[in-house]
């Protein structure tokens, strides 16, 4: 039995993956990103109209001042966490902790303090970039009496009621044949990088050659049978 080698298919199977890797490689970003979660209050306007959203509204609170020694924040992490937890436990109105930073402190000191906030589960803290450059941990005051009465009066406050609709098979078929479904796909195609169009064009070209080859072979076989 004579072997038949499908040349267009072999070319497409070998060439298209190479083209895909060549054109997509510049868009692969191997950079590892780290996120720093920090709240920066709004800058105070001259007319002080946004005083409530700036740090000025809490600047004059009763803050316990803690100086952060340069390059020592990580070593003193346990102490800082204990101070933050003590602040939460005191639950004193209009109070907080002011972590004093200066130009000698490192980025590692700052990140270590943010980690301490996360370890202590401190919900409210902010960096005062406008004047001092210090990191402030503010108390999230909770009125014990109000909290108890709220728990008794509102038994369904934390419940969420929602209606869930599961689409049927006919709904899925309708979505597939609808113009909106394909319109979204065409919009996504327009956002592809330039190299992707070469890959698509190459695929369609080899597909066309393959279809013509198959048609030609069927015609040859038909003639032989006749």
From TrEMBL:
Q: This protein is called what?
A: Uncharacterized protein
Asked whether the keyword Transmembrane helix is assigned, the reply is: yes
TM spans, by residue?
5-24, 195-214
* Protein species of origin: Chryseobacterium salviniae
Question: What are the entry keywords?
Answer: Membrane, Transmembrane, Transmembrane helix
């Amino acid at each position: 039995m004579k072997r038949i080698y499908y040349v267009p298919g072999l070319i497409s199977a070998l060439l298209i993956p190479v083209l895909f890797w060549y054109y997509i490689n510049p868009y692969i970003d191997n950079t590892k990103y780290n996120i720093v979660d920090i709240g920066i209050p709004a800058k105070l306007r001259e007319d002080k109209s946004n005083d409530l959203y700036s740090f000025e509204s809490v600047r004059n609170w009763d803050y316990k001042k803690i100086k952060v020694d340069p390059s020592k924040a990580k070593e003193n992490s346990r102490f800082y966490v204990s101070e933050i937890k003590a602040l939460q436990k005191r639950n004193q109105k209009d109070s907080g902790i002011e972590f004093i930073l200066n130009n000698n402190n490192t980025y590692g000191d700052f990140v270590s303090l943010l980690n301490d906030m996360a370890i202590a589960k401190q919900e409210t803290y902010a960096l005062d970039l406008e004047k001092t450059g210090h990191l402030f941990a503010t108390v999230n005051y909770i009125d014990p009496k109000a909290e108890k009465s709220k728990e008794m009066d509102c038994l369904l406050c934390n419940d969420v009621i929602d209606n869930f609709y599961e689409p049927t098979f006919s709904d899925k078929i309708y979505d597939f044949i609808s113009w909106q479904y394909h319109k979204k796909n065409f919009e996504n195609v327009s956002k592809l990088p330039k190299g992707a169009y070469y890959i698509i064009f190459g695929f369609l070209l080899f597909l066309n050659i393959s279809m013509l080859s198959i048609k030609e072979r069927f015609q040859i076989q038909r003639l032989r049978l006749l």
